[in-house]
Amino acid sequence: MWKADVSRWRRCLKGVVGMTIIALIVSMILVGYEQPAFAACGDRPSYNAEVTNSGSTWTARNGSRTVYSGSDMVAAVQAAIDSLSSGRTSKEWVLVRGDGSMSANSRISLRSYTGIDVCGTIHVSGSGSGDNAPIYARGVRDIEVRYLNITGGPLYGIFMRNVENVVLGDIGIRVSSGLGVRIDNHGDRSVRSRNIHIDQVYVSGTGSHGVETYGVDGLTINRVTARNTGGSGLLLNDTINATVDRIDADGAGTGTGYAALRFANRNGRVGDSYPTNIRIGSVKAVGGGRGIFCVSESGGVEINQVDIQRTGGNAILIENCYNVNIARQSGTVDGGGEIRIAARDEFPPSRDITLQNLTVRNTDIRWSPCVGSNIANRNITRENSNLHWCSSAR
């Protein structure tokens, strides 16, 4: 009898385990499942150099060597970076533990093949000039910033110029001035910065943009969350081959012509044409300046979903852009300024523009002036919204 009871319990346990596994698999399929790339700051199996803080003393060590001890956090972190293997061709890692402060007129410079985890908050104070930033990189490759939190008043939170193979992980920039993240190629504009991956950036309080690229080829962003930025939440200039999963902006560019998401300066132009190469998953814009703004011969864009509410300026403004598809899947626009197709005289008029699958409430849709070609609206539901559309264009 005892053996029979054990056998029944085993069968019951197997059934429970099996059903649990099945339920887990089903839930993964239904809600989606992403294995996190990393779980917590400082969780790598090993680091080549480590920087720690005790009281007012910062200490940097590489193995058994102490490479810095003193009161200057920037000097400690820089010493740790510079202690890594000379001429390396694979990434070596630095761990920083503790909160610290630095001047807006100083920087921590990354070298090629360097990764860094900053497990603490860097507070920036004072005045500065130029392109100084808590994290700075120029003319380097294969760099990674997995964790970083910045407060205070930097010129830039992260500044990178003419870089290649960059990974930014979990980045928090809660500041009162400056620009959040800028990656460009303005040291040598004949060579683009390449292969930039950003996992997630939360940025608030900047005097300028949240995240900005200029002269980049190959950009992937999982998420940009922008709150009360002085300029755009995400601004792409002269950037090609970009994929952005989500932009979530509240109060981006209030009182300005900037937008939650802005394309400018021939963004998306490949050679002399505009193939679809800028792919945006979803855009949420609440308040602020404009919602979506495409300008100055940009294009090659498709945006799957939009949710735009109560913007101070145009909810959507397309001005001298080419091959732009808004709300390829679905979207809502509620209040705010008009949705408009516009034109400036100095550039050729827009062409190949599609607005579709939108529910528009409490604002109008306008194409003016009547210039451009192959400009369409379809499957638009309007509630307290007027359509001012050109019957023909020139």
Shape: elongated
Structural class category: mainly beta
Order of helices and strands: HEEEHEEEEEEEEEEEEEEEEEEEEEEEEE
Q: Which percent range describes the beta-strand content? A: over 45%
Number of separate helices: 2
Largest beta-sheet characterization: 16 strands, mixed
Using the coordinates above, name the CATH class.
Mainly Beta
Count of spatially separate domains: 1
Report the end-to-end length measured between terminal Cα atoms. 92 Å
Number of strands: 28
The residue ranges in which pLDDT falls below 50 over 5 or more consecutive positions are 16-37
Radius of gyration, whole Å: 25 Å
CATH architectural designation: 3 Solenoid
Name the average pLDDT: 93
Overall helicity: 10-25%
User: What is the CATH topology?
Assistant: Pectate Lyase C-like
Would you mind describing this structure in some detail?
The chain has 394 residues and is mainly beta. The chain has helices at 2-31, 73-82, and strands at 49-54, 57-62, 65-70, 92-97, 100-103, 108-109, 114-125, 135-138, 141-152, 156-161, 164-175, 179-184, 193-204, 211-214, 216-227, 234-237, 240-250, 259-264, 278-286, 290-294, 298-309, 314-319, 321-334, 337-342, 351-361, 365-367, 373-383, 387-388. The strands form 2 sheets. It has a 16-stranded mixed sheet that branches. A hairpin with a 2-residue loop joins strand 2 (57-62) and strand 3. The N and C termini lie far apart (92 Å). The model is unreliable at 16-37 (pLDDT under 50). Keywords: Membrane, Transmembrane, Transmembrane helix. It comes from Desmospora activa DSM 45169.
